[in-house]
C-alpha cells in the first residue's frame, strides 16, 4: 500500500529547508517551497529528515521484549548461550510470531523502515522461527520491509539434518543463507563454508555469515569466505557479520584483509560492540568496504540490553570507533542508513526523487546532535504513510492481519 504526503519545512541530512512531496509511496519533488497540493500535509517544524533507518543485523524470532524479566545465569562460552537458548525457547514459551511482532513494532517506532533478521533453524525447533517471522512480515508489510536470513544457530554439520532444513527455509521464504563460526562451532571450516556456499549457489541467494571467531582463527575463516566469494563470482553478494577478527592489533595483516574485502565487495555488518575487538569502521569505509550495522539480539537469553533504536546504535558505533568529529558521527549514521541499505541491496533507497518515501524526522540541530541525543523520532513515514509519531506507533494502521 502506498500513500501521498507533503512534508513541509524539513532539512535533508541537516541541510537547507525544503518541502518534500511523496506520491504513490515515492518521493517525487524536493523543492524549497511547494505550493498547496492534493496531499495530506505534515509540518516538519524545521527538523532534520533522514532516510529510514536500516536494522541490518538482528534476531526477531527470539527477543524477550514484553515477557517477564529473564534472570541471566548463562555460561561464558558461545556454546553455553546457544544450548541455553535452544532449551529456553520451549521452557519460556518464546513464540517467534509474537516476539518478532513486538520487536518489529519497537524498531519501527524508532524509525526503522527495513530489517534484515537472522532466524534460527535447528533440528529441535525446525522451521518454527522462520514461519513465525514470516507471519509477522506479512502482517506488518505495509509499515516495514523484513528480510530473513536462514541461520543455523546451533551449528550445521554437527547437527545432521540442519542443511536440509536450511534448504527448506529458503524454499519457504527466507532470502539469505546464513552461517556461523565455521571453525569454532562446526569445527570444520571447509565443510561448513562449502555447505553455505553450495546452498547459496543452488538457490541463487546472498550469504551473511556470523563470524565471532577472533584473531587469526577468524582471519583464517574470513580468508576461506573470500576464497569462495572469488571462485563462485559472488562479489557484492556476501556479508560478514561481527568480523571481530578485523579488530585484532596486527595492522598490516588487517590492512591486507580489508583490501581484499574491498576488492571482492564483501560487506561488513557491525554492532560497534563495547565488549569486543571490532572492525575499524573508518578504515573499512576509506578502503571502499560497505559497512552496515544492527542491534543484534535485543533483550534475549544472550544478554539483557537493547531497544531496537538504530539512531542510538549509530552512537554506539561512534563510541566504539572513537568518533568525535561531526563528519565521523555523520559517517556513523550513514552506516546505520545507507550502509545497511547497500548490504541488503535495497532499491530506491534515499532522499531523492524516485526513492521510496521511507523517511524519518529526527530531533537535533545537526546530524551529529541527532545521533548523540537520539531523542524520540518526531515522525516515521513508510512509503508515504505516517506509521509513528513522537516515538509511538500510530494506532489506525489497518494492519494486514
Ligand atoms: Zn547475530
Outline the fold blueprint.
Layout: E1 5-12, E2 18-23, E3 26-31, E4 41-51, E5 53-58, H1 78-92, H2 96-109, E6 112-120, H3 128-139, E7 145-151, H4 162-172, E8 176-180, H5 189-203, E9 207-210, H6 215-231, E10 238-241, H7 251-263, E11 267-270, H8 281-287, E12 291-293, H9 310-320, H10 326-344, E13 359-362, H11 367-373, E14 379-382, E15 385-389, E16 392-393
Parallel strand pairs: 1-4, 5-6, 6-7, 7-8, 8-9, 9-10, 10-11, 11-12
Antiparallel strand pairs: 1-2, 2-3, 4-13, 13-14, 14-15, 15-16
The structure holds zinc ion (ZN).
Briefly note the structural class of the backbone. Answer: alpha/beta
Task: Give the % helix.
Answer: 25-40%
Question: Spans with pLDDT under 50 lasting ≥5 residues?
Answer: none
Quick check: average pLDDT? 96
N-to-C SSE string, H for helix and E for strand: EEEEEHHEHEHEHEHEHEHEHHEHEEE
How many beta-strand runs?
16
Report the radius of gyration as a whole number of Å.
Answer: 21 Å
Q: How does the overall form come out from the CA principal axes? A: globular
Strand content: 15-25%
**Largest sheet entry:** 8 strands, mixed
The strand order across the widest sheet is 3-2-1-4-13-14-15-16
Q: How far apart are the termini?
A: 14 Å
Q: Total number of helical segments?
A: 11
Say which molecules are bound, naming each kind only once.
Answer: zinc ion
Amino acid at each position: 500500500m502506498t500513500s501521498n504526503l507533503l512534508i513541509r519545512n524539513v532539512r535533508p541530512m541537516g541541510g537547507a529547508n525544503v518541502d518534500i512531496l511523496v506520491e504513490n509511496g515515492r518521493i517525487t519533488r524536493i523543492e524549497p517551497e511547494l505550493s498547496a497540493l492534493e496531499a495530506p500535509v505534515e509540518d516538519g517544524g524545521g527538523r532534520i529528515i533522514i532516510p529510514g533507518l536500516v536494522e541490518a543485523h538482528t534476531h526477531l524470532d527470539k527477543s524477550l521484549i514484553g515477557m517477564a524479566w529473564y534472570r541471566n545465569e548463562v555460561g561464558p562460552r558461545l556454546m553455553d548461550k546457544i544450548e541455553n537458548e535452544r532449551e529456553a525457547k520451549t521452557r519460556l514459551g518464546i513464540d517467534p510470531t509474537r516476539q518478532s511482532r513486538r520487536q518489529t513494532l519497537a524498531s519501527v517506532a524508532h524509525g526503522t523502515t527495513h530489517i534484515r533478521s537472522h532466524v534460527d533453524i535447528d533440528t529441535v525447533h525446525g522451521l518454527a522461527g522462520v514461519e513465525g517471522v514470516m507471519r509477522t512480515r506479512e502482517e506488518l508489510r505495509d509499515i516495514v520491509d523484513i528480510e530473513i536470513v536462514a541461520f543455523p544457530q546451533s551449528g550445521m554439520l554437527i547437527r545432521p539434518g540442519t542443511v536440509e532444513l536450511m534448504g527448506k527455509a529458503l524454499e519457504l521464504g527466507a532470502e539469505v543463507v546464513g552461517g556461523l563460526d565455521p571453525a569454532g562451532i562446526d569445527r570444520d571450516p571447509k565443510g561448513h563454508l562449502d555447505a553455505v556456499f553450495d546452498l547459496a549457489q543452488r538457490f541463487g541467494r546472498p550469504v551473511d555469515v556470523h563470524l565471532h571467531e577472533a584473531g587469526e582463527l577468524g582471519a583464517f575463516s574470513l580468508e576461506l569466505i573470500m576464497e569462495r566469494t572469488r571462485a563462485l563470482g559472488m562479489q557484492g553478494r556476501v556479508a560478514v557479520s561481527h568480523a571481530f577478527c578485523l579488530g585484532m592489533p596486527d595492522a598490516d595483516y588487517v590492512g591486507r584483509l580489508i583490501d581484499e574485502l574491498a576488492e571482492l565487495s564483501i560487506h561488513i555488518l557491525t554492532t560497534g560492540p563495547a565488549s569486543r575487538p571490532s572492525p575499524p569502521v573508518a578504515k573499512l569505509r576509506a578502503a571502499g568496504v560497505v559497512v552496515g550495522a544492527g542491534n543484534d539480539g535485543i533483550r534475549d537469553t544472550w544478554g539483557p540490553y537493547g531497544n531496537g533504536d538504530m539512531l542510538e546504535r549509530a552512537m554506539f558505533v561512534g563510541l566504539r570507533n572513537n568518533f568525535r568529529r561531526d563528519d565521523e558521527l555523520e559517517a556513523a549514521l550513514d552506516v546505520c542508513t545507507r550502509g545497511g541499505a547497500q548490504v541488503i541491496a535495497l532499491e530506491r533507497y534515499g532522499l531523492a526523487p524516485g526513492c521510496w518515501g521511507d523517511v524519518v524526522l529526527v530531533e537535533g540541530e545537526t546530524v551529529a546532535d541527532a545521533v548523540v541525543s537520539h531523542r524520540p523520532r518526531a515522525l516515521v513515514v513508510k512509503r508515504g504513510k505516517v506509521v509513528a509519531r513522537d516515538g509511538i506507533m500510530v494506532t489506525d494502521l489497518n494492519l494486514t492481519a
